[in-house]
Each structure stands twice: as C-alpha cells, then as structure tokens.
Write a structure and sequence with these properties.
Structural class: mainly alpha
Shape: rod-shaped
Number of strands: 4
Order of helices and strands: HHHEEEEH
Distance between the termini: 68 Å
Strand order of the largest sheet: 1-2
Helix content: over 70%
Largest sheet: 2 strands, antiparallel
CATH class of the largest domain: Mainly Alpha
Length: 308
C-alpha cells in the first residue's frame, strides 16, 4: 500500500513537472516569437531609414555636382571673356604704338628737313647780306655801276624775299607738325587711360576668379565630408547586416562565464551582437540602434563599446 501510494505520488510529481516544463516551454516560445517580431520590425525600420538616408545623400550629391558644374561654366565664361578683352586691348595697343612710331619718324624727318633748309637759307641770307654790304661800299665808289645793276639787285632781293617767304611757310608747317604731335600725345594719353581701366577690370576679374576658386574649394570640402559620412553609414549598415541572432538550441552555456543554462538560469540574447548570455552577464542596458530610443539588454562587452 505504501509502495503504491509512493508510485502515485511520484507519477503525480512527474506529471506536474511535465506540465510545468510544457508551460515554461510555451511561454518561452511565445517570448521568442515576440522578440523575433520586434527584431524583424526594428530591422525593417532600420533598413528603411538607411534607404532614406542614402536617397538624401544621393540628392545632396547631385545638387552639389550641379552647383559645381554651374560654377565651372561661369568660370570658363569669365576666363574666355577675359582672354578676348585682353587680346583686343593688346591688338589696339600694338596698332597705336605702331602709328605713334610712324608719326614720330615722320616728325623727326620733317624737323631734320626744316633744320637743313633753315641752315641753308640762313647761309644764303648771310651771304646776301655780305654781298649787299660789299655792294653798298662799292656804291659809294661806283654809283654809276650800282645804278646800272640796281635792277639786278632788285631781282635778287625779290628772289631772296621769296626764299624768306618759303622759310616762313616751312616754319608754319613745323607749327602744324607740332600741333599734330600734341594731338598724338593726347591720343596716347587717352589710350594709356583706357589701358589702366582695362588693367583695373582685369584685377576685378582676377578677384572674382579667386572668389569662385574659394567657393569651389569649399564645395569640394563639403562633398568630401558628405562622402566620409556616407562611408560611416555604409560601415554601420554592414555591421548591422553582419549581426546574427544565435539559436537557443545551439547554445547550452553562457558565452562569457560558461555557466550552464537551466530552468532557473535562463538564456538572454544581447540585442547588439545577438549572442546568448546569462542574466548577470547581460544585466546592462544601452541604446542599440539610432531608430530605437529605448535602452535594450546588452552584454558587458557591447555595453562598453556602445557607451565608450
């Protein structure tokens, strides 16, 4: 009788244990299902956020490339205009210098001709004056001969007056040449002023070119910073994609302290690396993903990595 009663008690104890284990297994299965659903939703949200961030980065990159193309086109137009204006002013300056040299040569030749003729006429005048003086002296002694040669002397004086008139005409021509020289000098001064204005405009174009170069450098720096942020996001994405949630059936002991799991010592997944730990080795919490603001259970090593 006592043996039967003991057997029944043992059978009832086994039945209670079996029911308890089944209930624990069912609760654990439900818990795993909920955890898997949460992880799947978090993964989908994270993938959507990463896709949105990638689209935003791609749009920013396209806008930056458009701005760079616009700046390059403006720079090319300004440089083309600058070279064209420079060539025009160089051609005009060359022509003016050539004309000025021709005028200077003509004026120099005219001055030389005037000086030669003036010297010639002065010599002739001196000779005539000497001749007139000698004839005047001879007139006192040879009044009759002078009277006879008076007509000849008058004709010579008339010729001399004509030569003097020619000298005055040459002097007036010299004055006209000097006036032309003054006009040419004024034109040269105007051309120099235009050249200075062109140089000022050239300096403005150079300053604008420097400003565009600076803007181009700033845009390149911003583009490089965007590229670096994009690489960091890609690295984070790759790390998230490389994480694997370990199966409970594959792990029988804590992956840190090697403590065997049991009914009282339950398994806990690290929400960051996916490995399985005991309660004491995964008691800390930290924010795992950027899309989730609520702290999650993590292992000690991931807690150090996430909070450092």
């Amino acid at each position: 009788m006592y043996v039967i009663h003991s057997a029944r008690a043992e059978q009832e104890s086994r039945l209670i244990r079996t029911q308890t284990l089944e209930q624990i297994h069912e609760e654990f299965t439900n818990y795993l299902t909920i955890v898997h659903t949460i992880i799947t939703d978090s993964k989908i949200k994270l993938e959507k956020q990463i896709e949105i961030d990638n689209l935003k980065l791609f749009e920013q990159q396209q806008q930056t490339e458009k701005q760079l193309n616009i700046i390059k086109d403006e720079y090319d137009k300004l440089m083309k205009k600058y070279h064209e204006e420079k060539q025009k002013f160089e051609i005009q300056l060359g022509e003016l210098n050539h004309n000025l040299l021709q005028v200077s040569e003509s004026l120099s030749n005219a001055n030389q001709t005037v000086d030669i003729q003036q010297e010639k006429y002065e010599k002739q005048i001196n000779s005539l004056e000497n001749e007139l003086e000698s004839r005047t002296k001879k007139h006192e002694m040879q009044l009759l001969a002078l009277t006879e040669n008076l007509a000849t002397v008058r004709s010579e004086l008339r010729i001399t007056n004509e030569k003097l008139s020619n000298v005055h005409q040459i002097k007036s021509e010299k004055s006209d040449m000097e006036a032309r020289l003054v006009v040419n000098q004024d034109e040269r001064r105007v051309l120099l002023e235009r050249s200075l204005a062109s140089e000022s405009k050239n300096e403005k174009l150079i300053f604008e070119n420097n400003q565009l170069t600076k803007k181009n450098t700033d845009l390149e720096s911003a583009l490089q910073e965007i590229a670096r942020e994009y690489q960091v996001l890609q690295i984070q994405t790759n790390k998230l994609n490389q994480r694997r949630w370990l199966n409970d059936d594959d792990i029988n002991a804590c992956m840190k302290c090697n403590q065997t799991f049991s009914v009282t010592q339950r398994k806990h997944h690290c929400r960051n690396c996916g490995n399985i730990f005991c309660d004491s080795c995964s008691s800390k919490t930290a924010i795992v993903a950027a899309s989730s603001k609520k702290p999650q259970r993590v292992c000690d090593q991931c807690y150090k990595d996430l909070t450092s």
